[in-house]
Amino acid sequence: MRTTLRDLQRMKDQGERIAMITAYDYPSARLADRAGAAMLLVGDSLGMVVHGHSTTLPVTLDDMVRHSAAVVRGAEQALVVGDLPFLTYASDAEAVASARRLMQEAGVQAVKLEGGAPVASSVRRLTELGVPVMGHLGFTPQAQHQLGLRVQGKDAAGARRLLEDALLLEASGAFAVVLELVPAPLAEAVTRRLRIPTIGIGAGAGCDGQVQVWHDLLGLDDGKTPRHAKRYADIGAAIGTALKAYVGDVRAGAFPTAAQSSTMEEAELAAALGEVH
To answer: Is residue 150 scored above 70 in pLDDT?
Structure first.
């Protein structure tokens, strides 16, 4: 049975930690879903880890729809959240149109957008229309040219602004808020103040849950694991070893063998070749 917003709220209320993982395609969604993740995030981070861009900004709504649809097909139990890409929610009307595509065409159960006060009206309008919305504060990748890749809210003014934005998102109807690259004490304080769940990434252990990028968890990050991530396996190295072995076998004529080949009756082959001649 698929995770619901009520389930997530119950988990916060009962102190049960919420595990969230990014997924970008059908096989990753199946694996993460079977692992018991409560939520899967189809993040616009796919622009970097899947498409090879240096930022998330080139990601289009078409990209998000395509990847999100594959993830939804692979997830049977996890609640699937799809990111609204850069400048696809610059107004309430655009936010509604973008969310419509992600929910109707891709089948996600919720959408995520970045920012506080500037997007509050869009969050309010979407939730009025029945769209579950997850907020995202702290370091917001779509604004990285303004913010820089660094921890947010380290001074009193910035911390206060982040707390106010979190409370505003909650009041506007958001069902949860991602806190990215936020000092752990601040993230814990925000978590205590909010009724809705907080999902941390680089925000310490005081949040109600955590989200991590698929590639960082599994060692598919080309050796560039962020400080806030923990590598649980080195799948990238294992894949590299396997592919080198395959290439070596092909070059040496060791693959394929009879075990990977099929045969046919000699008479049938002779007849076929005779017809050719």
So the answer is: no
